[in-house]
Known about the structure:
alpha+beta; 5-stranded antiparallel sheet; 10 helices
Amino acid sequence: WSPDSHLLLFGFVRGEIHIYDFKLNYIGPIHIFCIRDGVPSAEIAGIEWYDGRNGLMSMNSKSLVICYESGAMQLMSREDDPSPIILDVDMHVASVKWNDNGSMLAVAGYQATGDKTHNFIHFYSPWGEHLRSLKVTGKSIADCAWEAHSLRLVIAIDNFIYFANCRLDYKWCYIQDTVIYSFYTCTRPEHIVVFWNTKTNEVHYRYVRNLLALGGYGSYCCIGSFVERALPSANNTLTDTHVILLCNSIGVTIESKYIPFQPIHICVTQSYAIIAAKSLVFIWGISGFIGSQMVKKQPYEKFIQIDDPATVRHGDELQLSLMANLDGMETEDPITSLCGSDKWIFVARLSGLVLRYSLPACTLMEKIECQFRINKIALNSITTLMSIIDTNGNCMLIDMESKEPREDIANFKKSDVWSVVWANDLPDSFAIMEKTKISFVRGTEVEEAVPCSGYICDYNNLQVKVVMLDEIMKMHVKGIQAPSSDYITIYDNKLLRDMKIACEKLPLEQVSSLIEKDPHPQLWRALAEEALNHLDIKVAEHAFVKIHDYYGLQFLRRLQQFQGEQFKRAEIAAFLKQDDEVEKIYVHMDR
């Protein structure tokens, strides 16, 4: 049945599919582009509509899939779509299923190599882009089905039932204390972009049609979407194009830029917004739009065509319109991820090739070849280490300072990884998400994993801030609009956890000596807080001196003027911003 119950699709043994209305009147056949007419082995593996009950990712999203056991598949926006997306999944297909909001298609099947059979679940976007593959043990895969919120997948293999956790790739980013994320519903044609300040719990909303990408850094984010605009041309006709919006932490647009290609990846640094399509990279200088003065500097806009490293052009409006056809050029090796700093851009391609460009010249400086298909890349704070996650979820490190050829850092490889976030203050430390666990890594030493099902916002001061996006999306499905602080969790790394345990078991002077061996400002800050709670002014003063906290030292001088212990504890609670504790102490004192 079609989602509106007006049409029925009938599949026949030889692969034909006929359309009937709800009164069983014959309308006609569906044109099958993915197989040749009359192929006797073209047995249908699945005909699946996405019902649209949770909205569409965009107005041109595909919602009907027709797949054959041979692996031939086509994605259509409707039953008479004249330009479907044609795919060959390269395996014997058993089942195809849309997830709950039409953002992902699961294709279950197997590959036979000799006497061995390997079962796979391939995941695709509504536009036919391969997202990830999951290899499953067993002999013969039969079917799969999604959980209501698409967070789990159930798989039938032989006489067993398997459950797989799915980590969805939401469009979201984190800037300072603000989580920016998007969702869509069937009641509005636009994506709803939420700007949620996790410190004040203030929420702002913005409505964006055809949202494609999000990225942020510092206090600003970039939103990429599809629009229509009249670009300079011979007949001045309306041309499909896209826009990049530079916004602050409450969703107010600071500057906008029209570009003639689809933004798939966005990376924002202090001075640049880097936007990539499948074969194009656009570098937009944003340093003139940010800061207290908001002084607009000389525009900086450049394009890089990665299949032709010599193609670096300035991006005025006329050249933008002329270069629009470059994105239409098919590439067999599309961009899968990018990252950068104010000095470098790193562009990862599906084949395993990483291109390194210098800024601001946009000169190709290096090609790094990896022997696997790349999914995500990320840089540490000083551009000396790079993490790479391949399409199978394996995470590796590359030393960017080593002599060529680049090699993986020995003794480090993690599997089932889907996210890596580097620490802002420790260049050799990062946090990884593997399955439903979070682990801290320093150098190549991996700490014991902690259960976690959230998404990493930030790693700073030996603490990782995690947002529970899955729970937030469930909340919006239920009709609740504003998230709460319950969806934010803070995890301490081993160094900070051990220090807090030591404060409970050892004298604070001894803990201070331990911190001296491996100092960090957050350790001294935590020790100062613990010393204040114990009214140990001497240790607190020593800790404040170590981190050059003049305000803390001034507070200690003022604290010594109070006579009663309860007054001191109330002042300490106020200093530590524990308002409920302050009120409790004064109520107990009958004040």
